[in-house]
Design brief:
Layout: H1 10-20, E1 27-31, H2 36-47, E2 51-58, H3 68-81, E3 85-89, H4 91-107, H5 114-135, E4 139-141, E5 146-149, E6 169-172, H6 189-192, E7 195-196, H7 204-213, H8 228-233, H9 236-241, E8 249-252, E9 258-262, E10 284-290, E11 295-300, E12 306-316, E13 326-331, E14 339-346, H10 350-354, E15 360-369, E16 377-382, E17 385-394
Helix pairs in contact: 2-3, 2-7, 4-5
């Protein structure tokens, strides 16, 4: 492992101390993407005295952080740290769970959220299973900016919810600008029990400083700004065009007036303003996508708000499923600000029960919200504590 000549940051020191006193076997697999965040995660685990092995999932062939570039940098980091590196061919499960789901969703007029599904179905569960079965490794660490509070640590009680100190609670990362808990809402308890997020208390600035202290080859590597599929194909449009043929249809106002033509509903999402392709006397936003009639409905922003939506496939993370209406702070996009809302439990549909997510609710917003999009996640918080989350089904 490279010598550390620069001083450790304050948060870095606290993280190392926490890792050193962790209760349990100090043997871990680190999910490595080839970026600075996962690289530092591995370096901190090694520095804290853990027995560490690197694990990279090969999700796609070609260019991008989940492809050959990421594999090369991940292998280089493992060589630099003196740890073994494993590459697991996960292209088929990625195609089945992510690519096919995305294509199906866009074809049906919704805008799927691939990252949370990928974390649950492609990354965390399969990586843990592989590490346990192939290497007898009980824990997994990743470079996500989030925190887990285990049952032997301080339990955060929510008013009106029965206490359950057996639950592993998920919290936002300390750096609110980098917090990635939104994408982790769908992780079940059995996975949270075995996951460590060493960067949860660090800011991105601290991560860069710590990476430089360790002399990591990825210390100044630019941060990926796009979804992996966008990186791979060049744009989401190019990705979709590779799977879905163009199909011309109507662009209409809410009253049914036809004002333009589109070349495929897959190129639109709720709330979209740019690229609609209609000249109008005021800006228009997409308010509805009608797959059955191949129509895209648009309206001025003043008519585009929503007061409520249905959220299904809910995964309750940090608390017991509520039986009564619950006031929450809700986030409906990764970069959106949390807003006040009221969750009212309703009967789940059979498909949700079959998917082991037997919870559904009406989400009522305190104020009208913009860009409430079927297929995206609504994630519920109280302060830093992530209560649970689900998929927006209808508006």
């Amino acid at each position: 492992m490279p010598s550390c000549s620069l001083p450790v940051t304050q948060t870095g020191a606290k993280t190392l101390e926490a890792l050193e006193r962790f209760k349990g076997e100090h043997k871990i697999a680190v999910g490595l993407s080839g970026g600075v965040d996962s690289s530092l995660t591995a370096a901190l685990m090694v520095e804290a005295g853990w027995e560490v092995e690197g694990l990279t999932l090969w999700l796609m062939s070609g260019k991008g952080s989940c492809c050959s570039e990421g594999l090369v940098d991940a292998a280089g980091i493992c060589d630099q740290l003196g740890i073994v590196h494993h590459i697991v061919d996960s292209k088929s499960i990625f195609e089945e769970q992510i690519v096919n789901t995305l294509v199906k969703g866009y074809k049906e007029g919704i805008t799927p959220l691939p990252c949370s599904r990928c974390n649950r179905s492609v990354k965390f569960g399969p990586m843990l299973n592989w590490a346990e079965e192939q290497r007898k490794i009980p824990f997994l660490a990743t470079g996500h900016y989030a925190r887990v509070r285990h049952p032997d640590e301080q339990y955060l009680q929510i008013k009106g919810i029965p206490e359950d100190k057996s639950r592993h609670q998920l919290l936002r990362g300390a750096d609110k600008n980098k917090d990635q808990s939104y994408f982790l809402y769908d992780l079940p308890q059995e996975i949270l029990a075995k996951v460590i997020f060493p960067l949860g208390e660090l800011s991105k600035e601290d991560t860069r400083k710590e990476a430089a202290r360790h002399g990591l080859r990825t210390a100044q590597k630019p941060e990926s700004q796009d979804l992996c599929l966008v990186e791979h194909y060049g744009s989401m449009k190019d990705f979709l065009d590779n799977y879905l043929p163009s199909k011309k249809g109507e662009i209409i106002l809410k009253n049914g007036t036809v004002i333009g033509e589109h070349d495929g509903i897959q190129h639109f999402t709720i709330g979209q303003r740019r690229g609609i392709g209609v000249a109008w006397h005021e800006p228009l936003h997409v308010t509805r996508i009608d797959a059955e009639n191949n129509q895209v409905e648009v309206a001025p922003r003043a008519e585009a708000g929503q007061s409520e939506c249905i959220v299904g496939k809910i995964n309750w993370v940090s608390i017991q499923p509520p039986c009564e209406p619950l006031e929450v702070e809700v986030q409906v996009r990764y970069r959106s600000q949390p807003v006040e809302g009221l969750l009212t439990p309703i009967e789940a549909e059979q498909r949700d029960i079959d998917d082991h997510r037997p919870y559904r609710c009406i989400l009522t917003f305190k104020e009208y919200q913009f860009s409430i999009t079927p297929g995206q996640a609504a994630v519920f918080y109280r302060g830093d504590l992530l209560l649970g989350g689900g998929l927006i089904e209808s508006i």
